[in-house]
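Margin note from the TA: students keep mixing up input and output lines. Inputs are the sequences; the output is the structure of the whole complex. Example:
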Amino acid sequence: MTATRMPLAKALNESLRKAMEDDPKVLVMGEDVGKLGGVFRITDGLQKDFGEERVIDTPLAESGIIGTAIGLALRGYRPVAEIQFDGFVFPAYDQIVTQLAKMHARALGKVKVPVVIRIPYAGGIGAVEHHSESPEALFAHVAGLKCVSPSNSSDAYWMLRQAIESDDPVIFFEPKRRYWDKGEVDTSTVPGPGLHSARIAREGTDATLAAYGPMVKTCLEAAAAAEEEGRSLEVVDLRSISPVDFDTVQRSVEKTRRLVVVHEAPVFLGAGAEIAARITERCFYHLEAPVLRVGGFHAPYPPARLEDEYLPGLDRVLDAVDRALAY
Amino acid sequence: MTATRMPLAKALNESLRKAMEDDPKVLVMGEDVGKLGGVFRITDGLQKDFGEERVIDTPLAESGIIGTAIGLALRGYRPVAEIQFDGFVFPAYDQIVTQLAKMHARALGKVKVPVVIRIPYAGGIGAVEHHSESPEALFAHVAGLKCVSPSNSSDAYWMLRQAIESDDPVIFFEPKRRYWDKGEVDTSTVPGPGLHSARIAREGTDATLAAYGPMVKTCLEAAAAAEEEGRSLEVVDLRSISPVDFDTVQRSVEKTRRLVVVHEAPVFLGAGAEIAARITERCFYHLEAPVLRVGGFHAPYPPARLEDEYLPGLDRVLDAVDRALAY
Amino acid sequence: MTVEGTAARSATRRSGGTGKRASAARKKKAASGDPELVQLLTPEGERVEHPDYAFDPTPDELRGLYRDMLLTRRFDAEATALQRQGELGLWASLLGQEAAQIGSARALRDDDYVFPTYREHGVAWVRGVDPTNLLGMFRGVNHGGWDPNSNNFHLYTIVIGSQTLHATGYAMGVAKDGADSAVVAYFGDGASSQGDVAEAFTFAAVYNAPVVFFCQNNQWAISEPTERQSRVPIYQRAAGFGFPGVRVDGNDVLACLAVTKAALERARSGQGPMLVEAFTYRMGAHTTSDDPTKYRRDEEREAWEVKDPILRLRTLLEKEKLADKEFLDSIDEESDALAKRVRDAVRTMPNPDTTAIFEHVYADGNALVDEERAQYAAYLESFEPEEGEQS
Amino acid sequence: MTVEGTAARSATRRSGGTGKRASAARKKKAASGDPELVQLLTPEGERVEHPDYAFDPTPDELRGLYRDMLLTRRFDAEATALQRQGELGLWASLLGQEAAQIGSARALRDDDYVFPTYREHGVAWVRGVDPTNLLGMFRGVNHGGWDPNSNNFHLYTIVIGSQTLHATGYAMGVAKDGADSAVVAYFGDGASSQGDVAEAFTFAAVYNAPVVFFCQNNQWAISEPTERQSRVPIYQRAAGFGFPGVRVDGNDVLACLAVTKAALERARSGQGPMLVEAFTYRMGAHTTSDDPTKYRRDEEREAWEVKDPILRLRTLLEKEKLADKEFLDSIDEESDALAKRVRDAVRTMPNPDTTAIFEHVYADGNALVDEERAQYAAYLESFEPEEGEQS
Ligand SMILES: Cc1ncc(C[n+]2csc(CCOP(=O)(O)OP(=O)(O)O)c2C)c(N)n1
Ligand SMILES: Cc1ncc(C[n+]2csc(CCOP(=O)(O)OP(=O)(O)O)c2C)c(N)n1
Ligand SMILES: [Mg+2]
Ligand SMILES: [Mg+2]
């Protein structure tokens, strides 16, 4: 056990570094990832140590980044592409959905395209338009992609390593407002849960909160606050958005009989819709209340001065818990 | 009452023609929409009658089509852009999601971008890859867009007219395998239901089937078959995927107490997830069974020789009804 | 056409502005110019002539350009300061690009339409957009606080390159209307790599749309130098799409004005699009969030300092005795007043109301938005006053 | 650089191949060629020389090229017939483009890699992909039935232009590996408008990737003529991205081979990308679903018939006495055998198993796919045999 305390951002940096050391085929590419080390410094120092051939500053063209990453993967490389902000992934959407996601199946398994796409996503940093969005449902609906989002430093380190090791394309959603949150990382021991397993982040008995990425911390805080009011909330850190580890959620709900799903993305057709629908089907006779959802509104992400109102916070989560318990 | 019987495709053609006659600002644009009249002939004859200035063959670039349509809308035009097939909308996804959907809100209402995007979608015509997909959930999740899909000739005519009249961007999903199905169209009387209202396509008491676009016919056939087995199924034609007319679905479910949602799109995070989640919330104490979903699998749309297995048919719909009734 | 054709040759000639040969085409005073670069006013403040771009500004015009540039720079500096003070979340400074923006914008007619990026504060100024309106999005109170149609100046666009297609479509509409207005799409050197920009070139060329593509090549896209985007000068991109491109000294307000005017006239008269590459320099950081010491050398910035767009016009004005103390003092005063006005306006700029989240999502209304608005309102109302504070 | 620069001029020169001036550069026999068009074999079957593209094929090479083209055409005709008979759902014929495809493909080495569109049946043939494998996707039994790495021939790509970026990325990888292989990206005149293609040009140029962009300009993108995509010849697009472009007579198999070879050598030797525009014609419909009488005149097709790529090589072979009856008969036989083999293979091609829907969605497996596979299997099993038939 050689755990070190480090911010989530640093864990990602270490993870990339280790992956590049272990496998010379791993490449890092994107806008400003080289000399600058990325606008969030996730790739800081990598170009200095691994050279311009492996840490590639690309032209300002997201479709080009993902399209050439696919070509590099076909040649045997394992590109880790950075999209600078959530709102800028859409120029690459066609390459991701029609090519990256489908190529392995199209070739009846004859080729693999192990591309990881890192996207700093979600809000809470007071940014201008297009810098705070949560587009994960738009990828999770697409077969052939896997979508994950770590909530803490240890998961950041290990999930990114597992994503890079995966032979499938993985969209890796980084909760940007948690970049500076510190946590223990033990880089010596591969942790138990696989990339697509959920984790019980806190045990409880009265209701279950399910979340991923930035909202896990919010849910843990909500659970702590609820405890003071005498309520015991279980928190499931989903970790993976596609596929979802429904078994773990189901077990939790069979115990607590109530579920609230929380994400920043708009509720309408967000990941919570799928979780609500499937868990209702699996736990129909266990549920004392409908699965409730807390998330963004059906509106563009608002200007920074409104994001505290827009983003699910403690109170909105607990309000949903109250409503669930009122059934 | 001057109803005429015509195929759904012809109804769309008539609808475009009438809209162009009524409003000189209406333009039609897209690949091959001019001389050829579109690969499905939906724009047949329009260029001949309205000229090249109003029926515009565009370069082969979907982002360019939607991006310039936005510019034309800002200049006061009402462009109706055709995307040749579902699978080819993705190069335009960035313009649709980051610009078209958000521009009205970004400008605090000061500008309007009344662009209609027509997309022949879904499967059943034995086509090659990318010609049979159902991407509607990828648009419905995005605030600022409206998404609709007609199931019959009359709706094709009127909903397209209403979409063109709308000051909001509308993604108009055309059920391509129903293009040749005939139905009555009364072009003289504006029908009652608005663009975003659902319609009870068949009344019933034992369970509700909710569908839109190509699956409405499948559900009606399933309901007919079920009748022979002594079961009374209500069929709701949703018509609008964003927003969804939950009130109408709710009323139906409060009566039948069981709901099966059917669409061709993959079930995982498809429109059915949202309907299941929200109706469960609204009708928690009415539902005798969880909302069940019938739809595509989490896999790329298969080669044509497998589409009959992939697409929800009578049997799969009735199987879900059986399961719902077994609760 | 040989394998080693013109393209291959020009590929070896990296983008410059430092060329040493005098242009044979230049009639007089063509001192140390780059033959590829249109220049009418040297860094030393000398007027030079160009065979294709004659321009004889009146003293008032010259003074006006000077005033525009100075006030724009002052406004920009004030905004940067306000960011430092925490009044703005972010600022994207135009420092160094005043000539490119003021020059090109002064070539416009009122009925022309502009599609900017997020850095065209000088263009906005010329179009008559109140500078304080530009600050809303950087403060985080809105995504763009002005009515695009009041000044024919579209909102800032953040997704790189998108607006070039909007401009092209708008210009197609202008042509359909039979109007003789023109449209300008601003974009950066980095943006030139985006597929959307290439598609805009294609559409503009095919439909002969009256649009001028105005690229401010400020040498950097955040940390990436222009060579990461193109191995030949950007203005050359146009020829392969079927319309002309020209590179202008982007720190020379006169050349920027003259070249843009010519491009606009061309567009108006039905000759179609044109690409203008204004060769300039981003003197500051990319935005206030950026730290350029990570990726560029101080000497580079210093080399550009002597090419300052305001300095050279000031030299000319002084040499030609067009700027007396009274004039210069009056601008200083105006400048102070502007800064104060901006400062006051920002500090008193109210936060938007929570309900603004739900406004203008749709023009025609939407049941889902209505439902969520109502639910949220009910939620807010459910709080007792003192509970509301802990939310 | 003037406003009315080279681009403006070339904009008025519409794409042709019908130019009347003899090229000054051509050493001999340059009868009626277009100076912009590289040609080594005229429609009349005359060998001409080109200063930049010397090529002296052996008799065996010439016969080989003839055989490739003839068999490719026969295969294509058979596929079209099979579509008419209902054995295929669709077919995209290469009729008329045999020289462009065979010529360019014969320039390749085994270790080179090809990224095709959906029409490169001739290229596939040369790469050694069994023609019957090409039919799977058109029959609807798969989305591409061959292993791309067996013949360094990627799957057909339907989303227009996407593959140009894959090719560029692959070429970047080749360069990283220090290999001297090259990559060819095929695309059409219509595709040239896609943003992805421009981005591929940008990436290829910036990284100096060993990729050849081979554009078959067959004059049409379904119903749209090339002028809807570009107002200047497509090969000119390259220069503005910093690499050379050349137009070759796409119905001249020798010129296509020579020019592609030169482009590949260039790529191998570290000189970066090149664009080759093969000026040719789509003699048939876009696909079997298309009806070209809706949008193009018969005369146009007829004018191209006399430029037939196979005919001119046959004329040369006969003139030079390189094709005796025995040779020609043997090809006819081969051709009949190929047609029969294809026919038989298609007719016996089995439908995929239902479970194929769930295969290869992921390489590492996926819980959701597993769940849905199991549910579907259970559903299928729930049917009694006779009920199964009514499903
Ligand atoms: C599609 C997209 N990708 C990435 C970004 C992030 N980004 C903002 S500005 C910028 C650099 C732009 O460079 P350039 O076009 O040269 O304009 P400049 O900032 O120099 O004025 C980048 C990468 C973005 N806004 N949009
Ligand atoms: C992104 C995309 N948009 C539209 C289509 C539909 N489509 C298929 S082929 C084609 C025309 C292609 O023309 P070109 O590139 O010249 O190739 P050609 O068919 O002539 O070989 C179109 C529009 C597509 N396949 N992909
Ligand atoms: Mg720049
Ligand atoms: Mg073509």
